[in-house]
Design brief:
- This protein has two domains: 2-73, ACT domain (Alpha-Beta Plaits), CATH 3.30.70.260; 77-134, Alpha-Beta Plaits, CATH 3.30.70.20.
- It contains four helices and eight strands.
- It has helices at residues 19-27, 54-66, 90-94, 121-125; strands at residues 2-10, 30-37, 44-52, 70-73, 77-80, 100-103, 108-111, 131-134.
- The two termini are 24 Å apart.
Length: 135
Amino acid sequence: MYTQKIVLRFSKKTWDKPIVYRLAKEYDLVFNILKASIFPKQESVMILELSGTEENYHRGIEYLMNKGITVEPIEHDIERDDTTCIHCGACTAVCPTEALSIKRETMEVLFSTEMCVGCELCIKACPVRAMKASF
């Protein structure tokens, strides 16, 4: 199974197209919407995790580009420097996917890299700069 996380950018003309449906139906791709900001008749963005055969994945990406949707790979992952983190929780307030959460019993900040979509909001929110993007 081939899996990739990608960013889709929709123009004012493509925001209302049934692209996720077509990726599943016509290209046999399994999708997980990690984050989406879709606005009527405005530029919009969606972060998807797509899985399937590598051939179907590339066919699906070609379909998206032919429909006028900009496709960008998530080029980096977010990492936390555990020696710097003070577990203040500032990052948890801005994390849209809840990849960063607080374990209430110990008040420890937990980081699930599998849930992270690389939006970098936590990097801006971290007062001690424990969150970093790796390229």
